[in-house]
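Handout, page 2. Input:
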Amino acid sequence: MRIIAGTYRSRRLEAPPGWKTRPSSDRLRETLFNVLAPRMEGASFLDLYAGSGAVGLEALSRGAAKVTFVERAPEALKVLRRNLEQLGIASGFVVRAESVEAFLRSAAKAGQKQAPHEVVFLDPPYDAAEEYATTLGVLGGGPGILAPGALVIAEHRRKERLEEKYGSLKRTRLLEQGDAALSFYVIEAGAAGT
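Output:
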């Protein structure tokens, strides 16, 4: 694994051992960030189920002002922190060592006191399919979590079909690559709650 482009281009990243954490492939990350390029400069990026941090680190490399990494697995957290250290990144990020559910619950309680996120990426373990509906449902109905015009992207198995809508989130694009897919969601025009 490596950083594809930007400040840390071509720098190698560690991945957690074993099969429980499945890092996004370089090719899929390149596709994702080709789409996100116009949104990255100065963005607030939320990397849910962060694993090694590869997606959030790519966002920092490409100009995101702040990345919040949310990961609860101890082994993945060690690798994420090592990747930050090896890249020499000392600011512009927050690591939240907790479950996505706990993070979203506290973010919803904080409401407007918390800076909303402009880009949200989620990639739950493939064997935790229920996490997609739960997380996208909260994001689609949670005030203060998403900035106006925010984009939410879910990486999932190509053969696993996500819903077209989760609360006020509506899918606008589906990109498929190999066995993986990226579903892009935005808040529907006129939807309240963000």
